[in-house]
User: Fold this.
Amino acid sequence: MPGVIVVYLSTSGNTKAMADAIVEGAISRNVDAKAVNFNEAKMEDIKVADAIAIGSSTFNYRMLPPMEKFLQNLEKANVKGKVGAAFGSYGWSGEAPVLIAEKMRELGMKVLDPVLRIQYQPAEKDLEECKRLGKDIAVKVKKIPEKHGKSTSIEDAGVQEVKMGEGGH
Ligand SMILES: Cc1cc2nc3c(=O)[nH]c(=O)nc-3n(C[C@H](O)[C@H](O)[C@H](O)COP(=O)(O)O)c2cc1C
Assistant:
């Protein structure tokens, strides 16, 4: 089954709530997904993932240095060609997800546009948007040439369903 890893840095839980909703969305489309704090993320998990979603809140117009370091380390994981998505909670300027997406593109990842930013604590409708992103990621990973064997007809039906609504945000 294709796999999505969602890595986040969140100081007060806002970006974490987004990460959990993205996972929920991906799982609802029959794709394996899990959210991990950046300091618990294992390079082996990243190497085998088909898609990597990375989230950080914005501090002083950028992401916090430990997340910058994490992104530097991604170079070693050979993420070229993998699906990428960037997200994060913010207060007023929200640069971090944009910077994450830039870095992902530099590494050769296929990054979903636009990045997903939510101001402060995500409300129910914001979490729905996060779930939508998770579903969109699931659709994209299912289009990656097979390396996990065949997909089931139920999964294919799920892909069709999402395709029709794709581009909704
Ligand atoms: C010291 C400090 C600096 C911040 N700097 C920025 C900033 O430059 N731009 C911005 O959009 N938000 C900024 N914020 C707001 C946070 O990004 C926002 O509170 C966010 O919801 C935190 O999410 P988290 O719980 O996932 O870390 C700042 C917050 C604090 C406490």
Notes: The chain has one domain: 3-165. The domain at 3-165 is CATH 3.40.50.360 (Rossmann fold). The pocket of flavin mononucleotide is lined by residues 10-15, 57-61, 89-94, 120 (CB under 6 Å). Residues 143 and 159 are 9 Å apart (CA to CA).
